[in-house]
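Please, structure for the following, as C-alpha coordinates.
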Amino acid sequence: MKTSAKTYYWVALALTAVQQAFGGTAKNPPALPPAPVRSVFTMPAGAQEGRDPFFPESIRPYQAAITASHAVEVTDLKVKGYYHDAKMTLITINNHTFAVGDEADLLTTSGRVHIRCVEIQPDAVIIEVNGLKQELHF
Protein backbone atom coordinates (compact mmCIF):
# COMPACT_ATOMS: atom_id res chain seq x y z
CA MET A 1 0.00 0.00 0.00
CA LYS A 2 1.40 3.30 -1.12
CA THR A 3 0.77 6.57 0.73
CA SER A 4 1.14 9.78 -1.06
CA ALA A 5 2.29 13.17 0.11
CA LYS A 6 -1.32 14.38 0.02
CA THR A 7 -2.31 11.78 2.58
CA TYR A 8 0.48 12.83 4.95
CA TYR A 9 -0.56 16.41 4.54
CA TRP A 10 -4.22 15.68 5.43
CA VAL A 11 -3.24 13.58 8.45
CA ALA A 12 -0.96 16.34 9.78
CA LEU A 13 -3.68 18.92 9.24
CA ALA A 14 -6.23 16.77 11.08
CA LEU A 15 -3.88 16.19 14.03
CA THR A 16 -3.20 19.90 14.30
CA ALA A 17 -6.93 20.65 14.31
CA VAL A 18 -7.57 18.02 17.01
CA GLN A 19 -4.73 19.40 19.16
CA GLN A 20 -6.08 22.94 18.92
CA ALA A 21 -9.65 21.83 19.64
CA PHE A 22 -8.76 19.89 22.79
CA GLY A 23 -5.93 22.10 23.98
CA GLY A 24 -3.18 19.63 23.38
CA THR A 25 -0.34 22.18 23.60
CA ALA A 26 -0.21 25.18 25.87
CA LYS A 27 0.21 28.47 24.09
CA ASN A 28 2.17 31.35 25.50
CA PRO A 29 0.04 34.43 26.07
CA PRO A 30 0.52 37.02 23.37
CA ALA A 31 3.37 39.38 24.17
CA LEU A 32 2.44 42.99 24.77
CA PRO A 33 3.97 45.42 22.33
CA PRO A 34 6.84 47.38 23.86
CA ALA A 35 6.09 50.87 25.11
CA PRO A 36 7.00 53.55 22.59
CA VAL A 37 10.29 55.29 23.16
CA ARG A 38 9.90 58.99 23.79
CA SER A 39 12.55 61.46 22.80
CA VAL A 40 13.48 64.10 25.33
CA PHE A 41 14.83 67.39 24.11
CA THR A 42 16.21 70.02 26.44
CA MET A 43 16.63 73.59 25.31
CA PRO A 44 20.23 74.78 25.67
CA ALA A 45 20.92 77.66 28.04
CA GLY A 46 23.84 78.94 25.98
CA ALA A 47 25.78 78.46 22.77
CA GLN A 48 28.24 76.10 24.47
CA GLU A 49 25.39 73.63 25.19
CA GLY A 50 24.08 73.50 21.62
CA ARG A 51 23.18 75.50 18.52
CA ASP A 52 20.46 75.53 15.90
CA PRO A 53 21.99 73.60 12.97
CA PHE A 54 20.14 75.64 10.37
CA PHE A 55 20.79 79.06 11.96
CA PRO A 56 23.99 78.68 14.01
CA GLU A 57 24.27 82.41 14.78
CA SER A 58 20.67 82.70 16.04
CA ILE A 59 20.02 83.36 19.74
CA ARG A 60 16.40 82.12 19.50
CA PRO A 61 17.07 78.79 21.31
CA TYR A 62 18.39 80.68 24.34
CA GLN A 63 15.50 83.19 24.65
CA ALA A 64 13.76 81.19 27.40
CA ALA A 65 16.88 81.25 29.57
CA ILE A 66 17.43 84.97 28.90
CA THR A 67 13.81 85.85 29.72
CA ALA A 68 13.81 83.79 32.93
CA SER A 69 16.89 85.54 34.27
CA HIS A 70 15.73 88.96 33.07
CA ALA A 71 14.67 91.00 36.11
CA VAL A 72 13.10 94.42 35.74
CA GLU A 73 13.88 97.12 38.22
CA VAL A 74 10.88 99.03 39.51
CA THR A 75 12.85 102.26 39.14
CA ASP A 76 12.57 101.91 35.35
CA LEU A 77 8.76 102.22 35.59
CA LYS A 78 7.41 105.68 36.37
CA VAL A 79 3.81 106.67 37.05
CA LYS A 80 3.33 109.83 35.02
CA GLY A 81 -0.42 110.35 35.29
CA TYR A 82 -3.58 109.46 37.19
CA TYR A 83 -7.19 110.06 36.11
CA HIS A 84 -10.33 109.17 38.06
CA ASP A 85 -14.00 109.92 37.44
CA ALA A 86 -17.30 108.15 38.08
CA LYS A 87 -16.92 105.83 35.06
CA MET A 88 -13.27 104.78 35.11
CA THR A 89 -9.82 105.13 36.56
CA LEU A 90 -6.75 105.40 34.34
CA ILE A 91 -3.06 105.40 35.08
CA THR A 92 -0.14 106.38 32.84
CA ILE A 93 3.09 104.41 33.20
CA ASN A 94 6.06 105.37 31.00
CA ASN A 95 3.80 107.28 28.56
CA HIS A 96 1.33 104.38 28.18
CA THR A 97 -2.20 104.60 29.62
CA PHE A 98 -3.68 101.60 31.45
CA ALA A 99 -7.08 100.74 32.90
CA VAL A 100 -7.56 97.77 35.22
CA GLY A 101 -6.94 94.56 33.26
CA ASP A 102 -5.03 96.21 30.38
CA GLU A 103 -1.79 94.66 29.14
CA ALA A 104 1.02 96.15 27.08
CA ASP A 105 4.71 95.86 26.30
CA LEU A 106 6.79 98.82 27.46
CA LEU A 107 10.33 99.77 26.57
CA THR A 108 12.62 100.29 29.54
CA THR A 109 16.36 100.69 29.95
CA SER A 110 16.64 96.95 30.62
CA GLY A 111 14.61 96.00 27.52
CA ARG A 112 11.00 95.28 26.54
CA VAL A 113 8.74 94.37 29.47
CA HIS A 114 5.20 92.92 29.48
CA ILE A 115 2.98 94.73 32.01
CA ARG A 116 -0.59 94.04 33.16
CA CYS A 117 -2.48 96.47 35.36
CA VAL A 118 -4.05 94.52 38.23
CA GLU A 119 -5.48 97.25 40.48
CA ILE A 120 -5.49 101.05 40.67
CA GLN A 121 -5.66 102.59 44.14
CA PRO A 122 -5.79 106.32 45.03
CA ASP A 123 -2.08 106.39 45.98
CA ALA A 124 -0.62 103.32 44.22
CA VAL A 125 -1.03 100.96 41.30
CA ILE A 126 -0.47 97.19 41.42
CA ILE A 127 1.01 95.80 38.23
CA GLU A 128 2.21 92.41 37.09
CA VAL A 129 5.62 92.58 35.40
CA ASN A 130 6.70 89.39 33.61
CA GLY A 131 4.49 87.37 35.98
CA LEU A 132 5.59 89.10 39.22
CA LYS A 133 3.30 91.52 41.09
CA GLN A 134 4.76 94.87 42.04
CA GLU A 135 3.36 98.03 43.54
CA LEU A 136 4.16 101.51 42.23
CA HIS A 137 3.46 104.50 44.46
CA PHE A 138 2.79 108.00 43.10
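The longest strand covers residues 111-120. The beta strands are 79-84, 89-93, 96-98, 103-108, 111-120, 124-129, 132-137.
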